[in-house]
UniProtKB/TrEMBL annotation:
Assigned keywords, A-Z: Amino-acid biosynthesis, Metal-binding, Methionine biosynthesis, NAD, NADP, Oxidoreductase, Sodium, Threonine biosynthesis
InterPro entries in alphabetical order: ACT-like_dom_sf, ACT_dom, Asp/hSer_DH_NAD-bd, HDH, HDH_cat, HDH_CS, NAD(P)-bd_dom_sf
Name assigned to this protein: Homoserine dehydrogenase
Reactions catalysed according to its record: L-homoserine + NADP(+) = L-aspartate 4-semialdehyde + NADPH + H(+)
Presence of the UniProt keyword Aminoacyl-tRNA synthetase in the record: no
Amino acid sequence: MNEAKKINIALLGLGTVGTGVYKVLKMQEEEIPRKVGAELAVKKILVRDLKKAALKVDDPSVLTNDWKEILDDESIEIVVEVMGGMEPARTYMMEALAAGKNVVTANKDLMAESGRELFDMAEQSQKDLLFEAAVAGGIPIISPLKQSLAGNHLTEIIGIVNGTTNFILTKMTSEGMEFNEALSLATELGYAEADPTADVEGLDAGRKMAIMASIAFNSRVTFRDVYTEGITRITATDIRYAKEMGCDIKLLGVARNTQEGIEVRVHPMLIPSTHPLASVNDSFNAVFVHGDAVDDAMFYGRGAGEMPTASAVVGDIFEIARNIRFGCNGRISCTCYKELPIKKMEEIESRYFIRMQVEDRYGVLASIASVFGNNCVSIARIVQKEKKNDAAELVVITDKVRERHLNDSLTIFKGMSMVKEIPAVIRVY
């Protein structure tokens, strides 16, 4: 074998993911020349604390806290951003691309918000911008959407794309825990951050769905276009009733390409226990894709963590290194060549599971049915559950209904004395 070309890399960040990337590159060191056709060398690592970072690397001389040292080094051809956050990550990536360097990132926040300007800069510089690790950790989904499934007209993506919330809902389902108890366990085991808001309120999943919808439907979707609703109001009672109906409750990201426009949302959903996504438990993620040629395909695996995420990052590094070898960087740039409208949430149709506490007396059921009927909401099923004091608990399942019509009904119920509380309104797949 001829002597392999040497390609220099810079890592921006040496936290959980950065350390994982460094480890994987070291683990693969002997095989890289044959896999890639080039040697890969980590020439510089940008860190805040040089002393702390020195404990994580073989050669502390690669460490720097000066971004210019990396930017001005023409021998560095690939910059790997694993520091997270919006700034200074966005500035560093823009400057790296402008300087003719290829970029790999795991930054879902940045790609969901500033993807267009980053892609514009990458296209202008004819360099690669790859971000497989930004969605679903170690599960390959970005590359399949852009390449393997490019021959399809994709119409739907449904995913469990947040491991923290899936772990919480799994514990609530299998062990009857309430939300706060399951969240405490997730925090104790390291699945949840000290501030779990981005996970439990659906924000993390919303950013991932914006990225996937943009690629799948070839039209720009940003995080602000995504309706997000978390799992903080889900109770063990809701999960038990769902099970009685042959369903599980999952936090799902849903993106559909309809004739009226793109709908993209994240919220809890009752899904039949026979659906493949219902069996995705604990911290695992899965993405279910429907296309006109492939029909249904599901991608499943570890959605986060040091090594699974590093696996996706290193895969992107290998791809860019191969492109450098053959002088063909920048082949696949932004794929958003359409400008499709975003469908308003109030116009989206769903079935609903509604749990209501009402007065236990005659005429109540008729009044509730009348409110629904007057607001174009058709009832598929209504069941009276246990009584508590002077209140009866009703579970209502609707047929498919527009969101605004259901909201009109709920507004009226809030003003009716016979309706004491509506603890749960959950969409049904």
